[in-house]
TrEMBL record, chain A:
Pfam families: EMC3_TMCO1. Keywords: Membrane, Transmembrane, Transmembrane helix. GO terms for cellular component: EMC complex. It comes from the Eukaryota. Belongs to the EMC3 family. This is ER membrane protein complex subunit 3. GO terms for biological process: protein folding in endoplasmic reticulum. It comes from Fraxinus pennsylvanica.
Automatic annotation (TrEMBL), chain B:
This is ER membrane protein complex subunit 2. Coiled coil: none annotated. It comes from Fraxinus pennsylvanica. The keyword Lyase does not apply. Its main location: endoplasmic reticulum. Belongs to the EMC2 family. Component of the ER membrane protein complex (EMC). One of its GO terms (cellular component) is EMC complex. It is a peripheral membrane protein.
Length: 247, 302
């Protein structure tokens, strides 16, 4: 049944716009709060820095391996992946401990908790506020047609099953803003802002093992690399260049 | 390394400011961002901004960054009185700051009070183990005092932690070359080539070191790296062209009695000689005869 529901313009004035404004303001507030809370512990861990640099160096070695002579490449490879004291070698036992260590280290745990809280609490509060005040009516119409599958997601508060799926509730407007305001925030607040929820959520999944796992990955890829010295090719290219120059 | 557009921008701003066209603050910001060392200009323009209270208030909170920049430039130009004044101003404003502490230690170093500066740097490092600038200043101090082996030691320790800092590798390579420790210098240049393989400067330096080390294998490698430099610079690099000629003649000398069958094809030498001749004719026509006689002597020795 594709009948056109006429939506009151008052909905737009009193629901959509205030909701967006409130979310932008909360985002800005969170940004400043996170900046205030962050300035306390700035000491970087020496081991983390060294590991990060080792990874970059190993990556450079892999990328430009063909530019250095074979002997130097081999000696560097041994240096990195040597069984006893190679830079990238991580014994099995240690790899598991990394995450446990991260949780037991008080500073790190506090840091993570703070970041989590600053993300979860405003989201929860705003969501509850939206549900309380703005539920039970149709808020907007999506301009393109959708399938019936989206009904449960987009029409939470509306208990009529015959309304076209394009008519959504204000909860879906909230979610739209949540994911969509990221671009706006990077315009207003500059590149680095704590409101990047989606990015943070993606980071959370791969957080724990970052250093030790990347070392192991680098070691494996380094072991795979075949060295093929590119310099003879350069010699021929130089010949061509000079020929062109001289002629 | 600065990109071409940024270099053009800096030069343009510099000429603009020199001719009295304003834009000093932008110039200073750009120099600070690109970490260039134009101390004389920075000092001149920075002083003009800082001594004019109207311009100073126009900058607002960035004033303190400007103080730091001009203080460092003053130390570089040996205007220690100015540097001392600015450091004092910064100390009053930020009494417990690490950045100002670093500047203070730099002032001690500029005044030549090595012991105090060493103590200041060590205490700064205790608080903050991982400040690369302090490590590097310690190396610079050791080098300025003539303690080259100390500089090497500090630099190696720094590079154990921060192994991606290619400026540090370059500095280490140059120190090794000055001490004639060519094998170690070759290692450093290899690191540089690994991190930035498209910069011809590193290929050229590596080729020079290999050529100096000598030995047939090294000479062959040096030949190849000179060739890669020529390729990367489009054939215009005079030093690389000369390098090819010298390498060819050296290889010829070494393989003089050997079996001519497994001699590699060293085609580049005559080509580079021709290229050199063309270049000299264009740029230094009165030296063409000298060039011709040198090349002839190289060929004759084979």
């Amino acid at each position: 049944m594709a009948e056109d529901l006429v939506l009151d313009t008052a909905i737009r004035d009193w629901v959509l716009i205030p909701l967006s404004v409130v979310m932008v303001l909360i985002g800005i507030l969170r940004y400043f709060v996170s900046k205030l809370m962050r300035s306390s512990n700035q000491v970087p861990d020496p081991k983390m820095i060294k590991e990060g640099q080792v990874v970059i160096r190993a990556r450079n070695l892999r990328a430009a391996a063909n530019f250095i002579p074979a002997k130097s490449f081999r000696s560097r490879r041994v240096y990195f992946s040597n069984e006893e004291n190679g830079l990238l070698y991580v014994p099995k036992g240690q790899a598991q401990n990394a995450q446990a260590q991260m949780f037991s280290d008080p500073n790190m745990a506090m840091d993570m908790m703070k970041k989590n809280l600053s993300m979860i609490i405003p989201q929860t509060l705003t969501f509850a506020w939206v549900n309380f005040f703005f539920s039970g009516f149709v808020a907007a119409k999506i301009p393109f047609p959708l399938t019936q599958r989206f009904r449960s997601m987009l029409q939470n508060g509306i208990d009529l099953s015959t309304v076209d799926v394009s008519y959504v509730s204000s909860r879906s407007w909230y979610f739209l803003n949540l994911f969509g305001l990221r671009g706006l925030f990077s315009l207003i607040l500059g590149e680095e802002n704590a409101t990047d929820d989606t990015q943070r959520m993606m980071q959370m999944s791969g957080f724990g093992f970052d250093p030790t796992r990347s070392l192991g990955a680098e070691k494996d890829s380094l072991d795979i690399v075949q060295h093929e010295w590119a310099l003879p090719k350069f010699e021929q290219r130089a010949e061509a260049v000079l020929k062109k120059l001289v002629s | 390394m600065v990109s071409k557009t940024e270099e053009d921008q800096v030069n343009r701003l510099e000429s603009q400011v020199e001719n009295g066209g304003g834009g000093e603050w932008e110039y200073l910001c750009l120099v600070r961002k690109l970490k260039l060392r134009r101390s004389y200009n920075v000092l001149k323009y920075g002083l003009s901004i800082l001594n004019d209270p109207k311009k100073r208030s126009a900058i607002g909170p960035e004033e303190w960054t400007l103080y730091e920049q001009v203080a460092a430039a003053a130390m570089d130009c040996q205007r220690l009185d100015l540097a001392k004044d600015y450091v004092k101003v910064l100390l009053e404003k930020f009494p417990e700051s690490k950045r100002v502490g670093r500047l203070e230690a730099m002032l001690l170093e500029a005044m030549g009070l090595w012991e105090e500066a060493e103590k200041a740097y060590s205490s700064l490092l205790e608080d903050n183990e991982l400040d690369p600038v302090i490590h590097k200043r310690r190396v610079a101090m050791a080098k300025a005092q003539g303690n080259i082996s100390g500089a090497i030691e500090w630099l190696n320790k720094y590079l154990e932690i921060f192994m991606v800092d290619h400026d540090a590798w370059r500095e280490l390579a140059e120190i090794y070359v000055s001490l004639q420790m060519y094998k170690q210098a070759a290692f450093c240049y290899e690191e540089l080539i690994l991190s930035q393989p498209t910069i011809p400067l590193y290929h050229l330096a590596y080729a020079d070191v290999l050529y100096t080390l000598g030995g047939l294998e090294n000479l062959h490698m040096a030949y190849k790296y000179y060739a890669s430099t020529i390729d990367l610079t489009g054939g215009k690099h005079t030093r690389a062209l000369f390098g090819i000629c010298l390498c060819t003649s050296a290889i010829d000398q070494l393989t003089r009695g050997r079996n001519k069958d497994d001699k590699e094809n060293l085609q580049l030498a005559p080509l580079s000689a021709l290229a050199l001749g063309k270049d000299y004719k264009q740029r230094a026509p009165n030296k063409v005869s000298m060039l011709a006689s040198t090349l002839r002597s190289l060929k004759l020795s084979s």
